[in-house]
TrEMBL record:
Protein name: tRNA N6-adenosine threonylcarbamoyltransferase
Family: Belongs to the KAE1 / TsaD family.
Subcellular location(s) of the protein: Cytoplasm
Gene3D superfamilies per UniProt: 3.30.420.40
Catalytic activity: L-threonylcarbamoyladenylate + adenosine(37) in tRNA = N(6)-L-threonylcarbamoyladenosine(37) in tRNA + AMP + H(+)
Required cofactor(s): Fe(2+)
InterPro entries according to UniProt: ATPase_NBD (IPR043129), Gcp-like_dom (IPR000905), KAE1/TsaD (IPR017861), Peptidase_M22_CS (IPR017860), TsaD (IPR022450)
Coiled-coil ranges (or none): none
Amino acid sequence: GSAGCILAIETSCDETSVAIVRNGTEVLANVVSSQIETHQKFGGVVPEVASRKHVETITRIIEQAVDKSGVKLGDLSAIAVTQGPGLIGALLVGVVAAKSLAYSLQLPLIGVHHIAGHIYANQLVHKLEYPLITLVVSGGHTELVHSEAPGKFRIIGQTRDDAAGEAYDKVARALHLPYPGGPHIDRLAHEADAAITMPRAWLEPDSYDFSFSGLKSAVLSALNQANMKGIKLEPSHVARGFQESVIEVLVEKAIRAVKEFGAKQLLLAGGVAANRGLRTMLAERCEKAGIPLLAPPLSLCTDNAAMIAAAAFLKWEQGKFSSLDLKAESSLSL
Ligand code: KG4
Ligand code: ZN
């Protein structure tokens, strides 16, 4: 096939996505079919429902991506898929579809770690320079990752309880905002004319770990106490206070990691990387500290298959292929 044309599949959570990317950078198609509407009435993702929806849509999404890309199946060089972590039933649908394509088209199969995908979403739009630090903030993950070379990852800090996006979604739920709540809190925080100050979880002075469950509890208890006194807290003030607390800790630790590890770049990745407040504050702090900050465009921050193709391209170049007995793993390590 033509050089490095990879078809990638992502089904780890509630998005069915198929992309075709040439040479790790040229996105020929990136079709994302979201199940959000289906899960909204439950207030969160229901694993069995997600799995069934992926089964219903995957074939159509593959066809759409191929049509849109203008690429012939015979021109593909590899099939990539998110192997984990994620919801096991959801991951299985993508893995089985990828294996079937790889087998029938006689192409190599490449299993990709979901977080490697989020990190390499940056590669679709930026030139990466190592060593680098990535702040990964999504619905399931909050991690500071040190990479000394392409394809190498070392987690230097992570959340000890809730992921940042999870905290956003739980606080949003308490404010009666629709799922997923992150974008709504972001908007409210932006509109707010004041903030209710919330605690910050710094943990031990040298730690790169995070904790957001205490903050979430603080928000819920502030809402409850106001409720008992018959006062209504202004939702935008709550949102601003919560967001400031999350962002300040994320930014502070990310900048400290870049300095300590002598990183050439700071990358932002994951769904919460779409957060306006986070992007603005990181940009300001990086500018002051002379640190180059890279972030994907908003459409490549949340789950999509183009980022999986970008991560797979590195493996393809290195000839790191998976066998046809590749297994979906819900808690695959990076
Ligand atoms: O990366 P992603 O699409 O899925 C996971 O791998 O988890 O991230 C989804 C998460 C959700 O928790 C959502 O509320 C959050 O990203 N999110 C945001 C924003 N946009 C999405 N959180 C804060 N501000 C946003 N603008
Ligand atoms: Zn994700």
